[in-house]
Structures are given as C-alpha cells and as structure tokens.
Amino acid sequence: MMISAAITLATALAGVPATTAPVAPATQEAAPATPSVGETVHDSAGAVIGTVEAVTPQAVVIKSGTLSIPVAPASVGKGANGWAMGITKAELEAAGQKAQAEAQAQLKAALVAGAEVKDRTGAAVIATVKAADDQFVTVTSAQGAREAKLPANAFGLTPNGIVIGMTADEFNAAVGGAAAPGK
Predict the structure, then answer these.
(1) Region at 84 (left for phi over 0; alpha for psi -120 to 50; beta for the rest)
(2) Which part of the chain is CATH 2.30.30.240?
(3) Domain 111-175, CATH homologous superfamily name and number
(4) For 85-96, what is each residue's pLDDT tens digit?
(5) pLDDT above 60: residue 26
(6) Which region holds residue 38: left if phi is over 0, alpha if psi is between -120 and 50, else beta?
(7) What is d(CA 23, CA 35) in angstroms, rounded to the nearest whole number?
(8) What CATH homologous superfamily does 3-20+34-108 map to?
(9) For residue range 43-52, what is the model confidence (pLDDT) as tens digits?
(10) Sorting pLDDT into bands at 50, 70 and 90, what band is 73?
(11) What stretch(es) of the chain map to CATH 3.90.50.10?
C-alpha cells in the first residue's frame, strides 16, 4: 500500500475508538501501548480482525484477508481479551479497499508524461515518465537516456512524489541493457 493511502486511512480511523477498559491516570506521561508484529487484533465482539503486520509511530498495519490496512495506533487498544478495535472486520476491510482505490487513482493521475520518478527513498530523480497506461509505464532514465517499459504496479506515490522500489544504482543497472530511444 502506498504511504499516502496509509496516512489517509490511519488519519480517517483515528477517531475509531479502541475497545479498552478505563485506566486510572498515570502520574507520568506514559507512551500508549501498541501491539507487536504477529499479534492478533479482535473487533469489539471478540471476532478476529487480523494480525499485526507492522508497527510505526504513524500506523499499526493489520493484515486482514488479502489486505494490509494501516490504522492509527490510537484506534487499537488492549482489552481483557487482547488487542481490539471498535470496528468490525468488514468495516475495516471496506475502509482499506476504499483507501487503496483512492491511492491507485491518485497514482494513475500522477503518472503522466514528464513526471519525475524518484528512487525508493524519494531523494534522487532517476527517470521521467514518457507514457503510461493501466498496465505499463514507459520511463526515460535520467542517466544515459535509456528507456524502459515497467509494470504500473512497480510505482508508488509518496509525499515526495512518484517512487519506484529501487535505488538509483539498481534502476540504472536494470535499464542499462534497455535500448536507447529510437534504436
């Protein structure tokens, strides 16, 4: 899932209450508890929503069915039966599917001729989009003016722009054997 979609979904679910029992206020500011990778998350009725796939300060990523769905850490709480959310599995998956569709639409809109493509860190421009359709994106390398036709799902959209999951060196090595424009 793309980072912007993760942040959007995590923000949207920030108001979803975690199912936790009230806790007496601590005398010191304590960091809220968060689940660990591999732990199970339940809904308010006790049904399994999924398992924790990753944890960052911005999101807890829950694997539910075929989706990896980021949610705000505050929306997952520790209850008597373990980690839980105040949302059903169906509601969470619907929100995840909606966020994924919105992210794909944003990426498709960004993949236009002339758009810069950055390495996986978002720091270095490694190519420029020449053309794009629903399945493939043709890019021209920033180094050596080589062209490559890549699957559209190889690209992601971050706050830094369009990225591909390669370093600049990996990308240049991969397209090094591609034909130069017009050949």
Answers:
(1) beta
(2) 3-20+34-108
(3) Photosynthetic Reaction Center, subunit H, domain 2 (3.90.50.10)
(4) 999 999 999 999
(5) no
(6) left
(7) 17
(8) PRC-barrel domain (2.30.30.240)
(9) 888 899 999 9
(10) very high
(11) 111-175
4: its two tokens: 């912007």
DSSP string, the chain: --HHHHHHHHHHGGGSPP-----PPPSS-PPPP-PPTT-EEE-TTS-EEEEEEEE-SS-EEEEETTEEEEE-GGG-EEETTEEE-SS-HHHHHHHHHHHHHHHHHHHHHH--TT-EEE-TTS-SEEEEEEEE-SSEEEEEETTT--EEEEEGGGEEEETTEEEESS-HHHHHHHHTTSPPTT-
